[in-house]
Amino acid sequence: MGEVHRNNCFGYFKLKEITLQFVKEGLKNKTQKDVILIKNCIWLYFWLLLFEGALRKWVFPFLATPLLVIRDPIAIFILFKSLSTKLLRVNMYIVISWLVSIIGIPIAVFFGHGNVFVAIYGARIFLFHFPLIFIIGTFFNFEDVIKVGKRLLALVIPTTIIISLQFYSPQSAFVNRGVGGDENGAGFGGALGYSRPPGLFSFTSGNVTYYCIVICFLFFFWLSEQKIINKTLLICYTIAYILAFPMCISRSLYFQSALTALFSLIAISNNGKIFYKLVIAFFSIAVLFALLQNTSFFQTAFEAFSSRFETGNKSEGGVKGVLIDRALGGMLTALFFNENPIPYFGYGIGLGTNVGAMLTTGKVGFIVAEAEWGRLIGEMGFVLGIMIIIVRTFFGIEILSSSYKAIAQKNLLPWMLMSWTFIAILQNQLGQPSSLGFTVVLGGLVMASLQEKKSTLS
């Protein structure tokens, strides 16, 4: 497999190194057993990401706190196993993230919040989880990414059933139990008396992220000319997504769906046959929406979504304000227009997470900043915060460029996944466990899907 591009921002990291060929070379001195073990642990990380909330709410509510970090020991094991087998090539993205995290711990203890446990909790994000992106990209390949997509879609129907029960049930119902079996419910403010359902997750943001990723895979499977997935199942998954869309009461899901559609149009702009099929698909979805509007089940949910959309847009200055503030995630504000002066060394790594807030103030909330870039700079100060922002930005741009180039090789998978992953890498709230997990997994899947340039268009 040829190089995706010869030079990059650091002059070090090349996607060529994250290939199946690299794994095969490493296997000359290491056993296949190590590779299988690491891949199985990655799958375990993936499944715990999907069901961690369900375990904390319904199955083992008395273990809600330790289950919050259940993926941490798995991430640590995967990292050290990958390093010990020398199957992971450490690149400058990893080195800088490690360096900043290690420096951030004593700075937080001596110049910031002073809580060593909060500092370690915050540092673990880039010490142990961020490198998993490159590990997944090393050990997974194109076929593995397809398997992940199929499993994510297989959950769409049962998840949609769950959120419909949550949407139409009172917060006191068992299906709406919160973390630790909280009988006050896990629903979050929605509209018209209906709460945003969390689905299988601890909080509604995890549920919305799940459906944002689902739409990426749905578009890919519909655009693919190969018989990768059963069409009847794909139709059922699509209908389930459409039914879930208004019940999520999420503007983020709305904008993500539009962005994924835009990415799909860019991907097939030079393929008339597929473009025609996509137009037919959009028309069919519009007709289905019109038919569903005649049912009280869908109409009620859509009215709640519409109300939330309108009131939210008004409060944030219209659609333009929503896009600038939400899509850019307060990036410019964090860099140039922060009204509150931040200490040179920041308030301390980890303070901007919910766990950090709880351990230091006894309350869950955004102590430092709600937007990710504001949290990074607020926690670590301008210098260290900017270093992490640069790592995430350059890495995001690099794999976005590589994904776009893959379209010419008729590989649409990385490009469609990047419709969510690019923004996630740049400014997803990594202090939130499910958001961190999805960003890590999808970043790795994009890299893995670039490994084999298999044709997904005729």
Task: Summarize the structure in words.
Strands 1-2 form a two-stranded antiparallel sheet. Mean pLDDT is 84; it is low at 1-13 and 454-458. Helix 8 (142-154) packs across helix 10 (204-223). It has one domain. The protein has 458 residues and is mainly alpha-helical. Helices cover 67% and strands 2% of the residues.
Can you describe this structure in just a few lines?
It is built from 20 helices and two strands. The protein has 458 residues and is mainly alpha-helical.
Q: What layout of secondary structure does this protein have?
A:
Elements: H1 20-26, H2 32-59, H3 64-68, H4 71-84, H5 92-111, H6 116-129, H7 132-139, H8 142-154, H9 156-168, E1 188-191, E2 194-196, H10 204-223, H11 231-247, H12 251-267, H13 272-292, H14 296-315, H15 318-327, H16 331-336, H17 354-361, H18 372-407, H19 413-427, H20 433-449
Helix pairs in contact: 2-4, 2-20, 5-6, 5-18, 6-17, 7-20, 8-10, 8-20, 9-11, 10-11, 10-12, 10-19, 10-20, 11-14, 12-19, 14-15, 18-19, 19-20
Q: Give the distance, in angstroms, between the N- and C-terminal Cα atoms.
A: 21 Å
Query: What characteristic shape results from the CA principal axes?
Result: globular
What is the total domain count? 1
Largest sheet: 2 strands, antiparallel
Helix count from the secondary structure assignment:
20
The amount of beta strand, in percent, is under 5%
Poorly predicted spans? 1-13, 454-458
Structural class: mainly alpha
Mean pLDDT: 84
